């Protein structure tokens, strides 16, 4: 029975070591996943901060763009008022067959914008250029006619200056709007990266939780094995004590029996050796 218990204890001890090793492996894996999660969370925060910086820059530039647009519109409004006065002067003087300078100028701007932003065949583009050239010539002719009148010449110069200033400001609007769009695109990209790293951090956290829970389960199994080993140790220790006590009792009986035999021989007149005397003393017969 004792040998069976010892063998069972060996198996439990081996199982305990397996649970301990597996627990340590899982704890190391959990720590690795925790480090990855923390690094990804830190990266996410960096991307979000970058996105916020780009958003702030975009918003600030958009405010500047709006301010420039207000200035541009103000100059255009002033120019429109003067061109309306010029058109009114032309109508009063019977020049109704010609389109107004304001209308011609708008048409020129529209065609120039199309030329810059759309793709045309060589023939179509040449045709468009000729049309713009013709319209500009019409504007020049009408302006030349108007410049013969001193008052209209002054208004026309003012209107041109307002248009020029509006055009210069519009260039600034376009440039700043492009920069604002760049910051907007960078903001969107930073938020996209933040979302990606946040998803990876969540996945790493899930792996951390799973590894930690598995490690906790292995630890519970290890503790259970340790308790079972202590129980085996108590039983084995008790059996060993009992076995030793039984063995001592048997030895004592054997010594007593041998001592009684020697004592009877002594009483019969036989001489005792030193070992015989020691044995009799051990058996407490002398």
UniProtKB/TrEMBL annotation:
UniProt KW Translocase keyword: no
Using the UniProt record, name the top-level EC class of this enzyme in a single word: hydrolase
Q: Which key words tag this protein in UniProt?
A: Coiled coil, Hydrolase
Q: Which residues form a coiled coil?
A: 125-169
Gene Ontology MF term list: hydrolase activity
| Compositional bias per record (Basic and acidic residues), positions renumbered to this chain | 12-25
InterPro entries given for it? Answer: DUF7121
The UniProt record lists the EC number as 3.1.3.3
* Annotated protein name in UniProt: Phosphoserine phosphatase
Tell me the organism. Methanoculleus bourgensis (strain ATCC 43281 / DSM 3045 / OCM 15 / MS2)
Q: Source organism lineage?
A: Archaea, Methanobacteriati, Methanobacteriota, Stenosarchaea group, Methanomicrobia
């Amino acid at each position: 029975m004792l040998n069976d218990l010892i063998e069972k204890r060996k198996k439990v001890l081996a199982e305990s070591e397996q649970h301990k090793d597996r627990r340590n492996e899982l704890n190391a894996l959990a720590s690795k996943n925790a480090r990855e999660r923390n690094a990804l969370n830190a990266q996410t925060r960096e991307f979000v901060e970058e996105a916020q910086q780009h958003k702030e820059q975009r918003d600030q530039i958009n405010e500047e763009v709006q301010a420039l647009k207000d200035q541009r519109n103000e100059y255009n409004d002033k120019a429109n008022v003067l061109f309306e006065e010029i058109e009114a002067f032309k109508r009063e003087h019977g020049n109704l067959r010609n389109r107004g300078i304001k209308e011609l100028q708008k048409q020129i701007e529209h065609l120039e914008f199309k030329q810059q932003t759309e793709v045309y065949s060589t023939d179509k583009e040449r045709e468009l250029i000729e049309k713009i050239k013709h319209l500009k010539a019409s504007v020049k002719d009408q302006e030349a006619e108007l410049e013969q009148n001193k008052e209209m010449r002054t208004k026309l110069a003012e209107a041109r200056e307002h248009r020029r200033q509006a055009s210069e400001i519009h260039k600034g609007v376009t440039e700043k709007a492009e920069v604002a769009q760049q910051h907007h695109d960078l903001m969107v990209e930073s938020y996209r990266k933040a979302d990606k790293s946040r998803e990876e951090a969540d996945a790493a956290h899930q792996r951390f939780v799973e590894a930690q829970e598995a490690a906790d389960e292995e630890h519970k199994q290890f503790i259970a094995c340790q308790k079972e080993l202590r129980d085996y140790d108590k039983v084995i220790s008790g059996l060993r004590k009992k076995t030793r006590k039984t063995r001592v009792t048997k030895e004592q009986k054997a010594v007593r029996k041998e001592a009684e035999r020697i004592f009877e021989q002594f009483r019969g007149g036989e001489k005792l050796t030193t070992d015989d005397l020691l044995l009799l003393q051990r058996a407490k017969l002398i």
